Amino acid sequence: MAKELMPGQRRLATGSILADVGLVAWFAFALFPILWMVLLSLKSDAEQTSTYFRFTPTLGNFSTVLSQRGTDLTSVDFKTAIVTSVINCGGAVLVSLLIGIPAAYAAGRWKFKGSDDLMFNMLSFRFAPELMVIIPLFVIYNQIGLFDTKVGMVWVLQLVTLPLVVWILRSYFQDMPEDLEQAALLDGYTRRRAFAMVALPLVRPGIAAAALLAFIFAWNNYVFPLILTDTNASTVTVAITKYLGGGGQAYYNLTAAAALIGALPPLILALSIQRYLVQGLSFGAVKS
Amino acid sequence: MGTLELRGVRKTFGAVTAVDGIDLSVADGEFFVILGPSGAGKTTTLKSIAGLVDIDEGTVEIAGTEVTQVEPYHRNVAMAFESYALYPQKTVQENLSSPLRSGRTGAYEGKDQQARIDQVTTTLGINHLLGRLPRELSNGQRQRTALGRVLVRPADIYLLDEPLSHLDAKLRAAMRAELKQIAQTSSTTTVYVTHDYQEALALGDRVAVLRKGRFVQVGPPDEMWRRPVDTFVAKSLGQPEINLVPARVQRGEVVFAGGAGRLPVPPDLTLPDGEPVRLGLRPSEMEVDRGHRDEGEWLQLPGRVVLAERLGRQVELDVAVGDERLIVVEDSDHSPPEGTEVTVQIHLPNVHIFAGGEDGADTPRLGSGTGRHPAVLPEEARP
């Protein structure tokens, strides 16, 4: 007979060991592509197609990607592509925040007939596959001179990021007690100042989260820059794939190195705003 | 002049009617309490006065001027929120000075402003907390700061939304006394919202009982206590709740508890034979075995103590009288043990007679038992 457990005593470890093993296996499975990419980025041209784990590691791929040789191979300067990506995505996030924060506040605070439909409509932009709109966009961009420009990229990327920002922040504003703004109104502040003084500081963690997610979405976007840019406004995602050769010599090791470098800016951004992400929402101001 | 007039104020949120045509007149300097359960529309009424919700119908008049379309700040009211609503990133000092430096006042600057804050913080005993942020304060301290933000501003009307609800019992009693004192010295018109009947009776010059967005009864505390218009008001005042006992009129007597209790139908009531009624007996107005009582003045009911629950100075007795159970509150030094046969006594004028009705339905008060002397207000209901 199995030994009876005391109330609250943990069950025998077998189950939890199995669960742990399962978790580790899943973790390894999920991280394997990244590990493979790291390994690939350290392999020389001669070893790049080998599937062995034994090879002579080199950092040469990284310097190649960032040097003139990389540019010669792909006709795209990777460093410029990074800068362009930062400008495009930063611009898109900035525009999204400038428009999205007041929009989210309004959407969170004012209920009117059709307000939910309006919000759903906005979200539905995210449902549509980018490929569906890319041909008309290509034609329009060519006609109005936005093709291969940073302004054009900011404009199209904020279509991706704005709904995200509005939807994330709307829920933050909805969760925020209205009493604080009402207290400010009674204290003599205008609605705008009450928003700036009371509401904005409280949703800072939300803004950080929304900005980060929006940046990542914009950064990872491939279809828009692929079709709507050439060399002037080409982004990291497009630049990375150039190492695959497009019919010529494919450099998997350089692709991996470029992808790893390309993953750094969002990572740095995430680390730098981590402090705000974990900040509590209401700081003990309101009794919940 | 801090008078307040509400006429036909109505506010709905979708299909829910929060305030349903309220008329109210509060005199200058009056301490007016709105009492009601959760969801009765208390906060919406207060916010309608403050202009924080746009009312659908009706008018609001403050100090003789109609302000229905006026912005909150220009109504010159100060409000304490149930949630405190202190600015989290600002210190106590900054929170308190906020109403004085919002840019639209200008009345208090520099030294005057600080003097005003010092005066209020000294009254509330929070002058040592000025440098702290709200998150560094205890509940009681936050409550005082929220109250301070109201008092610091010279307003026509103070609106206080359950300002004591989050405090523990001891602190609440202390703050209640302080509030009473502050209200008396400041003599500013105050509308105070609460769900606690003791606060309502102790603080209010007048009390209004609110149910489903409508005032059921408005009046001075002792009148509300003695002559509740219906069972809802009677149940709203008093803890434990008033005992409501089904009864029937038989040959000039109101008979209840399976015949164990009888009292004469008061001469001012015409109740036909067989008419169902309900008797309201307040636990705090009943006594147990207090010796000889005048039969003509007192209702005396034989019963047995089923349960005696000691609550400090008082004991809550569950007494079986005939086929009914009555809750009686007695002094704990006068508590018969469980199982004892006792006589429950209540002064006839303290017996409320309500119209008969289904359990749970509220019915109007018809009158009270008749004795030779008027009822005496118990200690808990005295202001």
**Any idea what the radius of gyration of chain A is?**
25 Å
Number of alpha- plus pi-helical segments of chain B: 8
Low-confidence stretches of chain B: none
Overall geometry of chain B: elongated
Topology-level CATH name of the largest domain in chain A: MetI-like fold
Give short descriptive properties of this protein:
heterodimer, A: 288 residues, mainly alpha, MetI-like fold, 2 domains, 14 helices, 71% helix, 0% strand, flat, B: 383 residues, alpha+beta, Rossmann fold, OB fold (Dihydrolipoamide Acetyltransferase, E2P), six-stranded mixed sheet, six-stranded antiparallel sheet, 8 helices, 21 strands, 21% helix
Question: Could you outline the blueprint of secondary structure elements for this entry?
Answer:
The complex is a heterodimer of chains A (288) and B (383).
Chain A (H helix, E strand, L loop, with lengths): L12 H29 L18 H7 L1 H7 L3 H32 L5 H13 L2 H15 L5 H26 L3 H8 L4 H12 L1 H17 L2 H6 L7 H7 L9 H21 L1 H4 L11
Chain B lengths: L3 E10 L2 E11 L4 E5 L6 H9 L6 E6 L2 E2 L10 E4 L11 H6 L12 H15 L14 H13 L5 E5 L7 H18 L2 E6 L2 H7 L2 E6 L2 E6 L1 H6 L4 H6 L6 E8 L2 E4 L4 E4 L11 E6 L4 E3 L9 E14 L2 E8 L2 E8 L9 E7 L4 E4 L9 E4 L15
Parallel strand pairs in B: 3-8, 3-9, 6-7, 7-8
Antiparallel strand pairs in B: 1-2, 1-4, 4-5, 9-10, 11-12, 11-14, 12-13, 14-20, 15-19, 16-17, 16-19, 17-18, 20-21
